[in-house]
Specification:
Blueprint lengths: L2 H12 L33 H8 L7 H9 L1 H10 L21 H12 L4 H11 L9 H7 L5 H27 L7 H12 L9
Helix pairs in contact: 1-8, 1-9, 2-6, 3-4, 4-5, 5-6, 8-9
């Protein structure tokens, strides 16, 4: 990983040093729109702002599911599960029980992906909006670049913790070098770095 290139990519993606409105990557607003999806007042429920934030990452929650999230039983079910998912813990520091099969995070992902058929990409991005430090954005570009490691959450946690957390600390250092706020998690630094560097750029991955 070329630190200088990654730093430049991060600055471009998040519009650091660019005039307001000059940035071309709407995803740079994903974690910051309306103060973030994990702020205390709304950390355990989905809001309309969360649905718009997901759209900045080029996906749209189907309208029936969106209404169910905001006003129906799906929203209540996910709210119950969100209470069981830490909002202030980095994946590198989390116990493995937080992200394994059967955990509240896994149940929430399965509820969205399997029962409500939004697909694994949208399910992951919705949960990343609510728990940006713990749950990664994971889409087809990232999967293509990394070779589809399974299960992704636990494999990523292991990678972040190896060698006394060397990768996690390197991501935080890249965040600092790029001048990004601390509200951009180490996971998002990794996601953006991979997404910007991958030659497919979301267009040629199967």
């Amino acid at each position: 990983m070329d630190a200088e290139r990654v730093t430049d990519d991060l600055r471009r993606y998040f519009g650091i040093g660019l005039p307001p409105g000059a940035g071309v990557f709407t995803g740079g607003r994903f974690e910051h729109l309306a103060g973030g999806g994990d702020r205390r007042q709304i950390a355990n429920r989905f809001t309309a702002e969360d649905l718009i934030a997901v759209q900045t990452l080029s996906v749209t929650v189907p309208a029936p599911v969106a209404l169910n999230l905001l006003e129906g039983p799906l929203g209540a079910q996910l709210s119950h599960l969100l209470y069981g998912i830490p909002a202030d813990t980095d994946l590198a520091d989390a116990d493995t029980s937080v992200v394994v099969d059967g955990s509240p995070a896994y149940q929430a992902w399965s509820l969205l992906e399997n029962q409500h058929k939004v697909g694994w990409v949208i399910a992951g991005k919705l949960l990343a909006r609510k728990r940006p430090r713990l749950l990664p954005v994971y889409d087809r570009v990232v999967r293509c670049a990394l070779g589809r490691p399974l299960p992704f959450w636990t494999e990523l946690r292991t990678a972040l913790r190896e060698n006394d957390g060397a990768l996690h600390h390197r991501l935080l250092n890249l965040r600092q070098c790029a001048g990004l706020p601390q509200t951009v998690s180490a996971l998002r630094v990794a996601d953006v770095a991979i997404w910007m560097a991958h030659p497919a750029s979301g267009h040629r991955c199967p």
